[in-house]
């Protein structure tokens, strides 16, 4: 299922010199497509980074450069198409870290960091309220942390604290119960996965969060970790391996785990007369290689007519909500979403399914504003709908 | 520069025009990392203004103003060349044409598509592929190169061997002349369309083109490892002249294979010898015929080793990523030569001799783009952070072009940096003709000045030749080029 590419990233300085400035990255970059100026293109940013870090030019860190580096969704499309094989996503993260180290991070990033260090989640709520969403369950206690369960469900901040996304964990619990999954959660001991810290340029702070979560998982003794958030999944899959060393943990996104339940016929799916399309979240698709699982689920529902968006799988367009872009430039993020909305409109779908709470929020808002009669659903909600 | 006029344009185009130094500095570069030490004393590469027109009318309006006020205008879209084609040398206005994007009209009866000039080749092909169609040929930089840009260069690349030059596929083009006058050009108009192919943005700004398209057909990919260069060029010659014409015929010399191996781009067992990539497209019958040609050739020749079809398919998938070789750099220098295919073996033999003389690893690869010509890239690793050595290394680019010239080749594209070779690229008669065209269409020389027609004073062929030869001589004596 996984079709990940090997990263050739060496150092920021070397990669900036390797960039051939061919511009293949331009048309795939959603930020460049909206802004249109060379400085907003990946090659423009790298060209400036070369001057600053690799060629020793006395140009310093200008406000323009810091702004352009923050205007990126970390979607990885530029990395996918780079003719010199630069892992540009790693390069952007390195740049954000260097900017943070120089004390020039955007104020919004500092706000994200301070809030996370205080609350351990991206909201302003107390982390002890992580399971507030479960109050809508008939038996809220089923999600309380307990040792000995097979599966640990890592809910993620958005699903835990934002009412609009709370339907996702509720759907997952219902599906798990139906399929007889032996699961638990980390409850109030679940901290943010650390992704917002990594993408703001504070990877060392993120390590504390990763360690905390890994320690709790080890205490619970689960053998499989399932998360419905694409960014949490990316962190667990790619950033937590050092902490997990010696502990055997299968890490799956809900799309992968639910596809397994469907394949094992542990849930029954009834007919659904809808035209469904799928939006690949960048952190799950292009940046983690999970493309087939959600499509297997959708196409296994009787009656569903599945249509692909014009850009799909590794060439999928970003929703605009990645890389903390919303915190620094919400207008740009919304303009990027519009590019995707156009493709959804062209597809003729009545339902657009995704598997990332941020993507779903961005698409819902934009589709609603556009007055389009297209429903946005998480993959878990689609399954629940098909389960009748 | 007339500041008032530029302010007027800036005011009119609002957030689509800028004179901010941060932004403008990015429009003073293309792919070539040429040291400021060489550029700054000779040229003013910093635009006074960058403007992004959204349509032909705006292009015309800006050009009318520039014409009246004698302001140099440098058109730019993908900016994916290395010759400073899209970099101003006299300041002025850079016109960023990337907003001229998208398909205007698809005519499936005529099998043509009308497309705006700033659209990239990959964007156009994606659009066509979704409708069961495709372009006839495209550059190996298709994800970044624009339709108009490739037309204004020579327009030979992937697919040209089978379908001819881009010029032969363009039915018409909408062009804004230096005066701001708009013309739709064909083969029959005055001036004819052909004047603008390879004019490198010096005669007018192409805003849209009507191109021939074809049905999207199945493909077959073959990859041969061939023991040595003479045998590789012999096989290449047979293949290009075979009854079934390859869509794409790409080769790489042993140095290129070793470099790719060192970077982990190819498996251990194919690091020796040369590579010949042969891609066919067409009907099932054509593909079967092609397969017969290839199999028969491989059966009769013990120096040919057919590589697995999945590796051949992968090579095709990676066709836009030749620049990965740059990872061995971090910088590369080199020259692209338009070369008769009959001369390829001798050219590569001389390149090998040059490698030994200068103690550098020269890597060559290329495409056969007509029945008689190939574009050959010969490059070597350098390090642009070591400025003095890098400048010395630039002299070796001339040595590569000299070898090409000895074999009836010349630089592929002119721009600024290849103007010292202008007398190799064009005969005196051709050059006079080109200069007459320029004089007729842009007598004030506001469009992309400093490019194509003559070299700057300090880069005239004589001075340039002596300077480069002295530097190369020092490198040769030291026996150390490259990094």
Question: What can you tell me about this protein's structure?
Answer:
- The complex is a heterodimer of chains A (about 400) and B (about 475).
- With about 400 residues, chain A is of the alpha/beta class.
- Helices cover about 45% and strands about 10% of the residues of chain A.
- In chain A, the strands form two sheets. A four-stranded parallel β-sheet of chain A has the order 2-1-3-4. Chain A has a four-stranded parallel β-sheet with strand order 6-5-7-8, sandwiched between helices.
- In chain A, helix 1 (about 10-20) packs across helix 3 (about 40-55) and helix 17 (about 330-345) crosses helix 18.
- The longest helix of chain A is centred in the middle third of the chain and has 18 residues, at about 205-220.
- In chain B, strand 5 (about 105) and strand 6 (about 110-115) form a beta hairpin.
- Helix content of chain B is about 35%, strand content about 20%.
- Chain B is globular and about 70 Å long.
- Chain B is of the alpha+beta class and about 475 residues long.
- Chain B has three domains: about 5-95, Uridine Diphospho-n-acetylenolpyruvylglucosamine Reductase, domain 2 (2-Layer Sandwich); about 105-215, 2-Layer Sandwich (Uridine Diphospho-n-acetylenolpyruvylglucosamine Reductase, domain 3), CATH 3.30.465; about 220-410, Vanillyl-alcohol Oxidase, Chain A, domain 3 (3-Layer(aba) Sandwich), CATH 3.40.462.40.
**Over the alpha carbons, how many angstroms does the gyration radius of chain A reach?**
21 Å
Round the mean pLDDT of chain B to the nearest integer and report it: 96
The overall number of domains of chain B is 3
Side by side, the strands of the main sheet of chain B go 14-11-13-12-16-17-15-18
Please summarize the sheet with the most strands of chain B: 8 strands, antiparallel
Q: What CATH architecture label of the largest domain in chain B applies?
A: 3-Layer(aba) Sandwich
Q: What's the rounded overall pLDDT mean of chain A? A: 96
> What's the CATH class label of the largest domain in chain B?
Alpha Beta
Count of DSSP strands of chain B? 18
Q: What is the distance, rounded to the nearest whole angstrom, between the alpha carbons of the first and last residues of chain A?
A: 29 Å
Q: Which stretches of chain B are poorly predicted, pLDDT < 50 over at least 5 residues?
A: none
As residue ranges, the low-confidence spans of chain A are none
- Give the proportion of residues in helices of chain A: 40-55%
Percentage of residues in DSSP E strands of chain A: 5-15%
Q: Tell me the quaternary state.
A: heterodimer
N-C termini distance of chain B: 41 Å
Total DSSP helices of chain B: 17
Give the CA-based shape of chain A.
Answer: globular
CATH topology-level name of the largest domain in chain B: Vanillyl-alcohol Oxidase, Chain A, domain 3
Rg for CA atoms of chain B: 23 Å
